[in-house]
Design brief:
With about 240 residues, this protein is α/β, with parallel strands linked by helices. It has one domain: 3-Layer(aba) Sandwich (Rossmann fold), CATH 3.40.50.720. The chain is built from 8 helices and 7 strands. Strands 3-2-1-4-5-6-7 form a 7-stranded parallel beta sheet, with helices on both faces. Strand 1, helix 1 (about 20-30) and strand 2 (about 35-40) form a beta-alpha-beta unit.
């Protein structure tokens, strides 16, 4: 903890916290002194976290993960629904399974996590629900009908949860990253990377840490009157959305 920092220490669960943006989120929350657990389908979260193997497409495995975290750290006060997959292909080539598998992980998975987390939050009359969406959820993207639909669905989820649970000290917000330097963007051909950068007013990709800092702030004491918001971390790419 930095001297003078007064963030209340919370029990936090980050889904998909073993790599990419999820890992950076978990690291930042650990650095701020929180008790951090991550779910992963395989692999481990960063140092200082408790890793629980779980799959967001399976409600029983989510329930078991929460039970494990509650036993170790107490009730989950902050949940970051970050786990996500892509199955990119053009609309006419996209199978039903390409569509439903992405919705089941990215949107229904978030619903399962939020539903389980809300039980403890209602008892505590306190909670922070943070859903990791994407600029694509509002901007759209060719070849990502499934992914964009799943990511925009998170906004309706957060806003409805805000209306249901907002009077109980629970907030629900959405963070919408743009192009972030991860393994996925590193694999893009250089000419495609340069074309993307031209469309971003900041003229660069973001870092996982820049997303993590915004999420850590939403999880903290200073963001208690923010709910149902969509906060872009996209260098200006999605302005107006």
């Amino acid at each position: 903890m930095k001297a003078g920092s007064m963030t209340t220490k919370r029990t936090v669960l980050v889904t998909g916290g073993n790599r990419g943006i999820g890992r950076a989120i978990a690291q930042e929350l650990v650095a701020q002194g929180h008790r951090v657990a991550v779910t992963a389908r395989s692999g481990e979260g960063p140092d200082g976290t408790l890793t629980v193997i779980a799959d967001v497409t399976d409600a029983a495995s989510i329930d078991a993960a929460f039970t494990t975290v509650e036993a170790a750290f107490g009730p989950v006060e902050v949940v970051v629904a970050n786990a996500g997959i892509t199955r990119d292909t053009l609309l006419l080539r996209m199978s039903d399974e390409d569509f439903t598998s992405v919705i089941d992980t990215n949107l229904t998975g978030a619903f399962r996590v939020v539903k389980r987390a809300s039980k403890g939050m209602l008892k505590a009359k306190y909670g922070r629900i943070i859903l990791v969406s994407s600029v694509v959820g509002l901007l759209g993207s060719a070849g990502q009908v499934n992914y964009a639909a799943s990511k925009s669905g998170l906004i309706g989820l957060a806003r409805s949860v805000t209306r249901e649970l907002g009077s109980r000290g629970i907030t629900a917000n959405v963070v919408a990253p743009g192009f972030i330097e991860t393994d996925m963007t590193a694999e893009l051909p250089p000419e495609q990377q340069s074309a993307y950068k031209k469309s971003i007013p900041a003229a660069r990709f973001g870092t996982p840490q820049e997303v993590a800092k915004v999420i850590a702030w939403l999880a903290g004491d200073d963001a208690g009157y923010i709910s149902g918001a969509v906060i872009p971390v996209d260098g200006g790419l999605g302005m107006g959305h």
